[in-house]
Amino acid sequence: MDAIRNYREHEMMGNTFRKVAAYAKLLDSNVEYPFIREEQ
To answer: Which residues contact 14 (CB under 8 A, 6 or more apart)?
Structure first.
């Protein structure tokens, strides 16, 4: 991660194309249908 941060600090485009909001659903711990499983 440090290498990525360093690259973004020095790269011409930097963080221009980062879309942090695009990952919100991936990081959400809420489980909804059809992915709900019964406890075993």
So the answer is: 8
- Are 8 and 16 spatial neighbours (Cβ–Cβ below 8 Å)? no
d(CA 13, CA 16): 6
**Contact between residue 8 and residue 15 where contact means Cβ atoms under 8 Å apart:** yes
| Tens of pLDDT, residues 1-40 | 999 888 888 887 777 777 888 888 888 889 888 988 887 6
State how far the Cα of 26 lies from the Cα of 10, in Å rounded to an integer. 28
Give φ, ψ of 18 to 5 degrees. -70, 135
